[in-house]
Amino acid sequence: MPPTPHDLELIRSTLSIVEPVADRATAHFYALLFVHHPDVRSMFPAAMDVQRDRLFRALLLAARSADDPAGLTAYLANLGRGHRKYGTTTAHYGPVGECLLAALAKYSGSRWDAETELAWRRAYGLISSIMINAAEQAAASTPPWWQAEVVAHQVRERDVAVLTLRTDHPYPYRAGQYTTLETPWWPRVWRPFSFATAPRPDGLLTLHVKAVQSGWVSSALVRRAQPGDVLRLGPPTGSMVVDHTDGADLLCLGGGTGIAPVTALVEEVAQHGANGRGVEVFYGARRTEDLYQLEVLREFERRNTWLTVRPVVSEEVVRPGSGLSGLLGDVVAQLGPWDGYRAYLSGPAAMVRRSASMLVRSGVRLEHIHHDLEL
């Protein structure tokens, strides 16, 4: 039986209590799971900080999306397909559910009762069934992961590398999507990276990676990876794709290496033909020297009259005609309104959230703003 509206009220009430102590609740969940089911410990990375955070964010998103069944189903199905790369099987969902409920009961205090437990059992039953069904369907046609050889590694401006990969099997994806990636230097640690080109006839994949502080995977990819190394890729995911039957003008904001999926979208539009639509690209960075992808975009602009590229830097005053100065979202909003546009945002989370808020005030409908931040 699926959760009822009253069940959803109880679930949200529980989460509001647990959220302030989410770190302790999720740590307790994993402790229970590893103590009672030690065989699953090898599926997880040695350092669990990021994994713990992901669990609670997924629960919050599921609870908040309950009023959007189609969106929730798409999110959970994608999660189920992605979990195949960890080695997750149908048999794992039962033990995970029992440990999750035990952790929620402990940290919900007096709010937890038989009615609340039943609500959570119904919700978890629905969540797990959607994930299991999606994983089983995916298993019929795709591997749980792809082996990917590094065939080229080019260091760009300041800790940015462009990696070209060749997979062992065809890798189906759309421009604007991303993959999760595991390196041999950090086993079982998966991190997301967007594709920087539209699908190519030769099947090669291109990623832009910036080494960030405490970024184990990104730093290894920039400073240690070299041609011949083999990585693992999870299935493609992400909703930041263009509907080529729509015809509305596009507004694309890319900050830092977030320009990678924007470049891929521009390339895909060029391949399909703009068919009367215009594409506005705003490329943000702190300094002019950080705009490592600008010449590639300028070349697209020279070949396609429907494309306009505007660099934006936040820590410099630029010469008139060479670019714009200011925070990316603020600059774009000042040049609005953007009524009727379909917006695509990629970059640091704070930039995406701020820009999305600014675009709504500039006339872009919320449902027409696309990005892949989970929360």
From TrEMBL:
The protein's required cofactors: FAD; heme b
Catalyzed reactions per annotation: 2 nitric oxide + NADPH + 2 O2 = 2 nitrate + NADP(+) + H(+); 2 nitric oxide + NADH + 2 O2 = 2 nitrate + NAD(+) + H(+)
Family according to the record: In the C-terminal section; belongs to the flavoprotein pyridine nucleotide cytochrome reductase family. Belongs to the globin family.
Keyword Cell division (UniProt): no
One matching Pfam family: NAD_binding_1
Location of the Globin domain: 2-136
The organism of origin for this protein: Streptomyces tateyamensis
Enzyme class: oxidoreductase
Keyword tags: 2Fe-2S, Heme, Iron, Iron-sulfur, Metal-binding, NAD, NADP, Oxygen transport, Transport
Keyword Secreted in record: no
Domain FAD-binding FR-type: 143-243
InterPro entries found in the cross-reference section: Cbr1-like_FAD-bd_dom, FAD-bd_FR_type, FNR_nucleotide-bd, Globin, Globin-like_sf, Globin/Proto, MRET, OxRdtase_FAD/NAD-bd
Top-level taxon: Bacteria
The protein's Enzyme Commission number: 1.14.12.17
GO molecular function terms listed in the Swiss-Prot or TrEMBL record: 2 iron, 2 sulfur cluster binding; heme binding; nitric oxide dioxygenase NAD(P)H activity; oxygen binding; oxygen carrier activity
Protein name according to UniProt: nitric oxide dioxygenase
PANTHER family in alphabetical order: NADH OXIDOREDUCTASE HCR, PROTEIN RFBI
